[in-house]
Amino acid sequence: MTDVEDTVPPAGVAEPGPGKTDVTVEFAGEYVTVPSGTRFTIGREGDLAIDDNRFLHRHFLSLEQAGGLWWLINIGARLSATVTDTEGRVQAQLAPGARLPIVFGVTTVVFSAGATTYELSVHSAQPAFRETPRQVDDGGLSTIGAVPLTPSQKLLIVALAEPVLRREGTGMSELPTSAAAAQRLGWSITRFNRKLDNVCDKLDRQGVPGLRGGVTSSATNRRVRLVEHAVSSRLVTRNDLVMLDDPERYASETPAACRP
Fold first, then answer.
1. What does the pLDDT read at residue 218?
2. pLDDT at 74
3. Which strands make up the sheet holding 61-66, listed edge to edge?
4. d(Cα 119, Cα 152) in Å, to the nearest integer?
5. How open is the CA angle 179-241-84, to the nearest 5 degrees?
6. Is this model's pTM higher than 0.85 or not?
7. Is domain 23-124 in CATH 2.40.160.20, yes or no?
8. What is the pLDDT of residue 213?
9. Closest Cα to residue 112, out of 239, 232, 235?
10. Contact 241, 158 (CB under 8 A)
11. Which segments of the chain have a pLDDT < 50?
12. Cβ contacts of residue 128 below 8 Å, gap of 6+?
């Protein structure tokens, strides 16, 4: 597969004014400070070279300043990124040519190129958005971003997202095949695929795009999109990896135990 040429950055990015603050990009446990007044590119090449992945644009994302804010801009031609705050309360798809302001103290960016999913974060010392306490219901459970997953559905997502959640100092992972994830859980491939269909249908009804797949190449894309959404929205976190130590026990728990 040949690489698609990257698009030029969107027009209208103003020159940074005085008093701007730096931001820091974290990837694979390494931190890079982006000084005020500079343009920082991310991709297969650039200021942050993510990976020699032929599915990844040479220059995919950029960080630039305009109007007193740092902006994350998609300068690629075909890939999108999922951008969220650390609590998963705000989530947006950054399509080619789109831009978003960096307003949170920590902004998480998750994207996929081929079967590989990447995660990085942008840290701002002076975020424009200040967190306020979340309201809880009478039972003490947060109602923000609740997704009603059964225990086995959450187990499935954790099994698929395991390499991304562990990261192991790489910040990138090849997702397991359905057969490998099924084996990890001790399930038959038929059981795994049935539950994968149920999970994707449930999230598709809630408006998550890219989960309507077939049985060939689009099946891989569906798994990639599921993991990308689950990780960026904090539907599953590294704390959930303990579920893989005893899948049958966790699969028998009540659905309340699997709420994010």
1. 55
2. 97
3. 48-49, 40-43, 61-66, 69-74, 99-101
4. 25
5. 100
6. no
7. no
8. 54
9. 232
10. yes
11. 1-20, 133-145, 168-171, 214-217, 256-260
12. 69, 101, 103
